[in-house]
Amino acid sequence: MKNIHYKFFAAALIAAFTTTAAFAQKIPAGKSWSPVKANAWYAQHKWISGSDFIPSTAINQLEMWQAATFDPATIDKELGYAEGIGFNTMRVFLYSLAWKQDKAGFKKRVDQYLTIANKHHIQTMFVFFDDCWNADAKIGLQPAPKVGIHNSGWLQDPGNRIKDAGIYPELEAYVKDVMTTFKHDKRILLWDLFNEPGNSGKKEASMGLLTKVFGWAREVNPDQPVSVGLWDWSFEKLNAYQALNSDVVTYHDYTDENSHLKTIQLLKSHGKPLICTEYMARTRGSKFANVMPMLKKENVGALNWGFVMGKTNTIYAWDNPMPDGSEPKEWFHDIFRKDGTPYKQDEVDLIKKLNGK
């Protein structure tokens, strides 16, 4: 999920790993899982396959989770599409303001979501914070999508609120309340603590929240693993901290299969399971046909960005808006139309085959 031009070159990756080794001498790791524990956990699951999910009726995380717009009927229908193609995991973004507005109701809706997902034999990977897209969130009615613009209403969390006095105690209470409530819940696969820290030009300014959220998670000590995905290989300090403190290694890669495989080969040096929590941008050469079979062969979990075309407008590319709102010749993300018709039947057939359906 990017609002910058994505750079994922092997040379930069090698340089980052060299520097990461140096930073490893300086940054104390938390009580992350050992490779033995992480691999034993991974072996208990069949190959992790799925996507990042928001219902087609929601433009952003607030519209998904606020009481007035929470849409269990659409969630149920669309997770049914996921079950039908053999997906077993969905990555879902929470939102701190929805919790602050209505703590008990928010957790009730999270539980309702998990009940629906579990009915469809789907585990969930929840995301707490995010540095992507719009920085000024407001509770209440959310804006309509901007025509032809990718993720026009998606929200950073906490975004500009990071400057507010007292924000850290509030965010700590949010993470600990939600995580403590669900720390033993087998419907949750993994806690993804922070999506793309450093994005939106923040870079190392996100280190403070990154280190704090890992600390809060370790205090709760959930049954499920915690992780923060690697995504930009120029962010050396962030990458070192994320890799050292994650129980399993998660990452994003929107490149073709050859470049993506190089990423995997280097990340395997950590000795822990790998889960790709974002891939598949058709116009950039990251497609189901070339990348997903490779991920299965390498035993790397595979979660693509985008599921049902909807208010997030992710059929449009990050950097190629279409002001007339026409459907692009080649969708950037997403698999299904709202009625459950596949964008490309051959893609769905391949996904089903790889998932043993």
Compressed to H and E, one letter per element, the order equals HHEHHEHHEHEHEHEHEHEH
Care to count the β-strands? 8
Principal-axis shape equals globular
Number of helices: 12
- Helix/strand class: alpha/beta
The CATH topology, please?
A: TIM Barrel
The CATH architecture name reads Alpha-Beta Barrel
Write down the CATH class: Alpha Beta
How much helicity do the residues have?
25-40%
CATH superfamily: Glycosidases
Distance between the termini: 28 Å
Poorly predicted ranges (pLDDT <50, ≥5 residues)?
3-11
Question: What is the assembly state of the chains in this entry?
Answer: single chain
Beta content comes to 5-15%
Main sheet: strands, sense, barrel:
8 strands, parallel
Short description:
Helix content is 38%, strand content 11%.
List the helices and strands and how they pair.
Elements: H1 10-24, H2 35-43, E1 49-52, H3 61-65, H4 72-84, E2 89-93, H5 96-101, H6 103-119, E3 123-130, H7 167-181, E4 188-195, H8 207-220, E5 226-227, H9 236-245, E6 249-252, H10 257-267, E7 274-278, H11 288-297, E8 301-304, H12 345-354
Helix pairs in contact: 1-9, 1-10, 4-6, 7-8, 8-9, 11-12
Textual characterization of the structure:
With 357 residues, this protein is of the alpha/beta class. It has a single domain (36-354), classed as TIM Barrel, CATH 3.20.20.80. It is built from 12 helices and 8 strands. The radius of gyration is 19 Å and the shape is globular. It comes from Mucilaginibacter gilvus. Keywords: Carbohydrate metabolism, Glycosidase, Hydrolase, Polysaccharide degradation, Signal, Xylan degradation.
